[in-house]
Amino acid sequence: MKALIETIVSALVDYPEDVQVTERDDDGRTVYSLSVNKADMGKVIGKQGRIAKAIRTVVYAAGSSQHKKIYLEISE
């Protein structure tokens, strides 16, 4: 799942080397925290959050096939 997020986001940003995804487990759910360069934050979020929502949709769909609750946080 971590590789999926990195692959999607790296294709969108100008600084793919700054893309970092960390994983942690909280109360039976997996939380992925995505960190990108400040200059790329707008590209990851998109207008009115559309790109962020699309990334989350893909990640949640991939997680549902594994019967896991997955959340994606986007931070600077």
From TrEMBL:
InterPro entries: KH_dom-like_a/b (IPR015946), KH_sf_prok-type (IPR009019), KhpA (IPR020627). It is found in: Cytoplasm. The keyword Protease does not apply. It comes from the Bacteria. Keywords: Cell shape, Cell wall biogenesis/degradation, Chaperone, Cytoplasm, RNA-binding. One of its GO terms (cellular component) is cytoplasm. GO terms for biological process: cell wall organization; peptidoglycan biosynthetic process; regulation of cell shape. GO terms for molecular function: RNA binding. It holds the Pfam family KH_KhpA-B. Belongs to the KhpA RNA-binding protein family. A probable RNA chaperone. Forms a complex with KhpB which binds to cellular RNA and controls its expression. Plays a role in peptidoglycan (PG) homeostasis and cell length regulation. Forms a complex with KhpB. This is RNA-binding protein KhpA. It comes from Peribacillus psychrosaccharolyticus (Bacillus psychrosaccharolyticus). The lineage of its organism: Bacteria, Bacillati, Bacillota, Bacilli, Bacillales.
